[in-house]
Dihydrolipoyl dehydrogenase (Massilia eburnea), 477 residues
Amino acid sequence: MSNKQFDVVVIGAGPGGYIAAIRAAQLGFSVACIDEWSNEAGKPAPGGTCTNVGCIPSKALLQSSEHFEHASHGFKEHGINVEGLSFDVAQMLKRKNTVVKQNNDGILFLFKKNKVTFFHGRGAFAGAAGAEGYPIAISGPTTETITGKQIIVATGSNPRALPGAPFDEKLILSNTGALAIEEVPANLGVIGAGVIGLELGSVWRRLGSKVTVLEGLPTFLGAVDEQIAKEAQKLLTKQGLSINLSCKITKVEAGKNNVTVEYTDAKGEAQKATFDKLIVSIGRTANTIGLGADKVGLAVDERGMITVDHDCKTNLPNVWAIGDVVRGPMLAHKAEEEGVAVAERIAGQHGHTNFNTLPSVIYTHPEIASVGKTEQQLKAEGVAYKAGTFPFLANGRARALGDTNGMVKFLADATTDEILGVHIVGPMASELISEAVVAMEFKASAEDIARICHAHPSLSEATKEAALAVDKRTLNF
């Protein structure tokens, strides 16, 4: 057993952890990063949930299934005739796995490039801090204890299971199992109409599944701007997703080859449905079990999340926590920003994370993206605002693409015209939202965006027009 000493030890190599490690190394610290993810061959697979069973593989399957959808439904309008069209789920999964491995290997390369020492295993506090720092025990493929003067906890989150219905990843699936279905299920149930449920439901719907979504809340995408959410619900329903709100699950029972779900619907009436597979996406819980928090007195709340202040400092000196394991939205890019900020704070700099300008995206088709306040939030806060919308139906590039569903919506302060929120449902919303993030970081007004020249023809012109709409002076609608 060796005892290696580092300036900074990062526990977890998800988006927050590996970025924190790289930034700390760039700032001149000796850095170690510990991560236990393994691929099928038992080799290190850094990148966390996002890279292995989340953001990256889901986008790979969304892309594959969207290609099939275009070929089977959209190509004819373009004069492209396809005969004998078929798909190969095994090849889709193989490509998805290749994309994941490329990202895993990319992170390992970045560690070498930046001289970050990587340990493959599970990291945990081994005891109180000594003169050299905190002892961190590594178990698993690597077994040893290292010491860190500064510790960054970035252990991420785990999917939340329904009470009495644990994940078996065969019939009752978390995101992990939902990304590895080997045959298209005839009937697919999805509990939870959030990001994961809608994205993975869309993948299998495009490939032929009858998809039924059961959501407990009375509103669809309650955190999204209401006007945008209603438009998204209409479009996703039109595609074939059966979205049911105000559903209370009373029983889930796995049989030999299917799953039966009993629930009450929006009218309070008892319902029963049988599915070939059931995806459960009802949120995630902080991954702090086995971290050894009790050995050092690290404060963890009743939900298992590590308690931190605005700067991601825990109650212990020189111990920080970032990403899904702390307060705030469980978003990969939020974790990355916190990772950079913490590394810079350790170096005595002033790291910065602005929760008000964190974009969020749902990668359905059309995509749903937003940043800042929703209209319902502004109303609740009593903020006087102006709103402007512009439909992609009136955008020349969207017409040429044959993708005219959705709109861009701007919300601006009624007095100062400062942009308070931007919400998009439509083609490439994930890319278009970045302009709004930049504008809001620079305290731009809607007039600023309205006065900026946008390339023609481009989807971004819809952003300009929505900004013009704030003052009721759109030019193309």
Remarks:
- The first strand starts at residue 3 and ends at 11.
- The chain has a mean pLDDT of 97.
